[in-house]
Amino acid sequence: MNLAGFFPSRTMSLYMGKMFLVRTFAILAALVLVLQALDLLSESGRILAHPGNGEAEVWRYVGLRAPEIVARFLPFSVLLGTILALSQLNQNSEVIAMKASGLSAHQVLAPLIIAALGVAAISFAFNERVVTRATSTLEQWKKVDYGPLPIDRGDRSNVWVRDGDHLIQVQQVRGRGDAIQLFGITVYERSGRTLRSMVTATRGVRDGDGWRVENAERFDVASGAITKLGTVRVAGGVRPDQFTLSSVNADGLSFGALREVISDLRQAGRPTKALEGSLWHKLSGPLSSVLMPLLGAVAAFGVARSGKLFVRAVIGMALGFLYFVADNFAIAMGNLGAYPPFLAAWAPFLLFFMIGEAVLLRTEE
């Protein structure tokens, strides 16, 4: 053994790491293929419904949707890859041989945990560089019903803002702060929940504490009359940040970009707890791959001839499924404000780390 006697031999470590990685990515490829095909069954009709769309747009959708599927199911693939690799090692009595040579359960798992750390690092980089961009682009594409996408200059589209009883819809928002510009404006003027009139305008800019809109028209619901207003002032008291920060998709932002958005929201006095939980989850999510060898380790130890290998593999899968359920539940509670952001992102990880360690220590005894 090397590395202070903790790891198995170099040959054994590479053998186990390769076995683990090959099975993990083979399972991931199969899952992505099946799930992408099922997803296309529901979306291909909508994609092809837009005039001019064809096979190229379907493949474009696949290219944008597949990264999200990969990111979501990579930890699960790591779990299944761990169980398959350890089950084979157990059946071939290789685990028994390693234990007989004096290795502890932690030392047997060490090569898999190191490989899982590498998978977690790749997952984080993949999420930051590929998944966020694909998710953001796909979200914008869905908003235009899979039609031609406008040139992406960091603008926001289809933004809704509430102004007392009134609702304001803006087709496109450009710029930030007092330099913000609004395009395609519709103001739904209401009394309580009753719509009285609609004011539409082509363009709007900041004017004092309100907004000056151009080419405005008012449609009166009661009379059905349309009145040309020209240039008028609307939405007094509505701040610029209400348009730029009203709708934040955490999945479509990188770690750094999301942190900047959270800072802007804090300065504007807006709630940020849900986004803070998503920010922490961008770290805990990829790192969950490191947990999977620990949770799936129950399949490695015990005599394969006892006939309980399948039962132990099922137990390992059940622990992994429970982790994913707990993780989604904690994030949902964090979004509702029931859990603090750090707890929502990290509590399931720490809880199942302790469970995995307890199972492993029990195995040692």
Characteristics:
365 residues, alpha+beta, 9 helices, 6 strands
Order of helices and strands: HHHHEEEEEEHHHHH
Approximate strand percentage: 15-25%
The profile of the biggest β sheet is: 6 strands, antiparallel
How do the strands of the widest beta sheet line up side by side?
Answer: 1-2-3-4-5-6
- Based on CA atoms alone, the radius of gyration comes out at 27 Å
What structural category do the secondary elements indicate? alpha+beta
| Number of separate helices | 9
What's the number of extended β-strand segments? 6
The separation of the N and C termini measures: 23 Å
The percent of residues in helical segments reads 55-70%
Mean pLDDT: 85
The parts where pLDDT drops under 50 for at least 5 residues are none
Judging from the principal axes of the Cα atoms, what is the shape? elongated
What's a quick, concise take on this entry?
This protein is α+β, with helices and mostly antiparallel strands.
How would you describe what is shown here?
There is one protein chain. The protein has 365 residues and is α+β, with helices and mostly antiparallel strands. The chain is 59% helix and 17% strand. The protein is built from 9 helices and 6 strands; from the N terminus they run ααααββββββααααα. The chain has a 6-stranded antiparallel β-sheet. Helix 2 packs across helix 8 and helix 7 (273-295) packs parallel to helix 9. The longest helix is centred in the first third of the chain and has 40 residues, at 10-49. It is elongated and about 90 Å long. The two termini are 23 Å apart.
